[in-house]
Design goal:
The complex is a heterodimer of chains A (about 150) and B (about 90).
Chain A: E1 11-15, H1 20-33, H2 40-52, E2 62-66, E3 77-87, E4 97-104, H3 111-122, H4 126-132, H5 137-144
Parallel strand pairs in A: 1-3, 2-4
Antiparallel strand pairs in A: 3-4
Helix pairs in contact in A: 1-2
Chain B: E1 2-7, H1 13-28, E2 33-38, H2 42-45, E3 51-54, H3 59-62, E4 68-71, H4 78-89
Parallel strand pairs in B: 1-2, 1-3, 3-4
Classes of the chains: A alpha/beta (about 150), B alpha/beta (about 90).
């Protein structure tokens, strides 16, 4: 399967933020605008990082923001936010972050097909850099191989 | 062999680790049951696990275990994962 459709609402490029919380919040707003999750899901994603640390920075320059499946999630989906200026999450290896992917899934079982596709894309180490430099929604769709 | 990937939510990052570990192990010709789990269910999910895959933040939370704990820096770097899994399996 391919990644789900990427409507323009889930992509925000060159967003200006001062800190990691605002970066995650921007990704949460994108999910909310497309109806994938309620606005409260952003708080859940932030709480995960407050509780467990910046482990969501899973590769150099990339944060995969996510929270547990919850009533705030309306359907499976992702949002893509690139930052005008990278921000630090406090990760020991992978700071600073210039691309935030937000992942929302209705159930833990639903995630596997989606994360397998993300792995397909990002196991190519150029994808994060390309995404950080994307200028349009079309660029993002092309890099992610999404419809 | 049983391998458990741990993250805070049991989705997302642990899912990526699961998928990439399965790919690496298939390439190495090693049969393993890889599952994604989160801290709250760790005790149950990681019982009998030989290897736990996770990020540096969770080392302190994992507690006592007989499993080899592998700390992964770049979840998308299958070369890193291959090297560390091979080391643990030697």
């Amino acid at each position: 399967m391919a990644l789900p459709d990427l409507p323009a609402e889930v992509v925000a490029l060159g967003v200006e933020v001062d800190n990691w919380r605002d970066a995650v919040r921007a990704a949460g707003m994108a999910l909310a605008e497309s109806g994938i999750a309620d606005a409260s899901y952003a708080d859940e994603m932030i709480r995960m990082i407050e509780e467990h640390g910046p482990y969501v920075v899973i590769a150099p320059g990339l944060a995969l923001a996510h929270a547990r499946p919850s009533p705030a999630v309306k359907r499976d989906g992702i949002a893509v936010v690139t930052l005008a200026e990278p921000v630090n999450f406090g990760h020991p290896y992978n700071d600073p972050v210039s691309v935030v992917l937000a992942l929302a899934v209705v159930s833990a079982d639903a995630q596997i097909a989606l994360v397998a596709e993300l792995a397909n894309v990002f196991n190519d180490s150029t994808a994060i850099i390309d995404l950080g430099q994307a200028k349009s929604v079309e660029d993002v769709r092309r890099i992610l191989g999404a419809a | 062999m049983k391998i458990v990937a741990i993250c805070g939510a049991g989705i997302g990052s642990s899912g990526i680790l699961k998928v990439n570990a399965e790919r690496v192990l298939a390439r190495l010709g090693i049969e393993a049951d890889v599952s994604a789990a989160h801290l709250a269910t760790l005790a149950e999910d990681a019982a009998n696990a030989q290897i736990i895959l996770t990020s540096p933040e969770f080392i302190g939370d994992i507690g006592r275990t007989n499993a080899d704990v592998i700390v992964v820096e770049n979840y998308f770097d299958t070369a890193e994962l291959t090297r560390k899994l091979q080391q643990a399996l030697e």
